[in-house]
Specification:
- This protein is α/β, with parallel strands linked by helices and about 325 residues long.
- It has helices at about 30-35, 40-45, 85-95, 110-125, 150-165, 185-195, 235-245, 250, 265-275, 285-290, 290-305, 310-315; strands spanning about 10, 15, 20, 50, 65-70, 70-75, 100-105, 130-135, 140, 145, 175, 200, 205-210, 210, 215-220, 225-230, 255-260, 275-280.
- The strands form five sheets. An eight-stranded parallel sheet has the order 3-18-17-12-11-8-7-4.
- Strand 1 (about 10) and strand 2 (about 15) form a beta hairpin.
- The longest helix has 15 residues, at about 290-305.
- The radius of gyration is 18 Å and the shape is globular.
- The relative contact order is 0.16.
- It binds flavin mononucleotide.
- Flavin mononucleotide (FMN) binds near residues 25, 52 and 79.
Amino acid sequence: MEERRLETTIGNLHLRTPLLTASGTSGSADELAGLRESKATAQALGAFVTKGVTLEPRRGNPEPRVIETRAGLLNSIGLQNKGADRFLREDLPKLWQYELPVIVNISANSVEDYAKLAAHLLANDGGQITGLEINVSCPNIKEGGVAFGVDPKVVERVVRGVKAAVPRGRDVLIVTKLTPNITDITVPAKAAIAAGTDALSMINTVRGVAINIHTQEPYFANVSAGLSGPAIKPIGLCMVWDCFAKIPECRRRKVPIIGIGGISTWEDVVEYLLAGASAVQVGTAWFVYPDVFVEMKKGLEKYLDDNKTTVRELIGKAHGTCS
Ligand SMILES: Cc1cc2nc3c(=O)[nH]c(=O)nc-3n(C[C@H](O)[C@H](O)[C@H](O)COP(=O)(O)O)c2cc1C
C-alpha cells in the first residue's frame, strides 16, 4: 500500500512512479548503465523514454550542438542516432534488463516514414516495446521543412499512420509529443486526439537563438536551436494547464497528459501534477544532477505523506472550480 501512492496510469500502461526520462537527454541503455546511481535511478522511474530513433542512421548537425544559457540549454543535435536496426539490435535488449516499460521516441521527415518506422520497430522488437512517442517537432521535408506539429491536419495524418502500423492484437501505447512553437497548443492536441492518440506529452523545446559576440555570427549552423531547462518550465506548465482545462478528453484523463519542460525538483513535479499532468518527463536537469530521479522520488514521497494524498489525487487538482 505504501508504494501505491506514487502510482499513475497512462492509457493502459500502469506506472509505479510518475517519473520518466525525457527523450534525447538520457540516451539509451549505455548512458543509464554508466551512472553511479543507475540501479536506484531505474527504481525511481516509471518508464524509460529513449532518444529519438529514425529509420536510417543520422549523423546529426555540425558542432557546436549545445550551449548553456542563463536558465537552461540550447541544443541543435539534429537527431543523431544509429538508426532503427541498430537500436533494435544493440539498445533495446539492454534497456530491458531494468524491467521498465520502454517508450521509443520516433522521428521522421515525412508522414509515410513515421508509419514505416513504427511498423518496422513493432515487427522486429520481439514484443519489447511498450509504447511509441511520436516527436512531431521534426521538419516536414516534403512541405518545405516546417515542423509537422504546427499543422493540425498533418498531426492527424501522422498519428493515424502510426496507429495503423500497430500490429493487430498488440497493445502499444501511442503518445504524441507536441511542440510549444505554436499559438494555441490545444489545436494540435485535439487533432492528435481525433486521430486516436492514447496520450499527449508536452512540451518539446522552445525555439531560441544565440549569437557569438566575438565572431559576430550565430552559434548554431541552423541559427535557431531548442531551448530547454528551467527557463521553459512556466511555458510547459501553461500548456499542460490549457489542455487539461479546455479538452474534455484530457480533463477526464481518457487522454492523459505527460508534462515536460524545465522540471528540476520534486516541487516542479508536484506543480505539473496539479496543473493536470498524469506523469512527467525530466531532461535537462538530469545533465546537471545525476541523482535527480532518486531525489525527486524521495521528495515526492515525503510530500504525499505530509499531505496524506496520492499522485492520482493530485492530478489537475489546482483547477478546482476555476476552469
Ligand atoms: C540534448 C537534447 C536532445 C533532445 N532530443 C530529443 C529527441 O530526440 N526527441 C524529442 O522528442 N525530444 C528531444 N529533446 C527534447 C526533450 O525531450 C524535452 O522535451 C525538452 O528538453 C524539455 O524538457 P527539459 O526542460 O526537462 O529538458 C531533446 C532535448 C535536449 C536538451
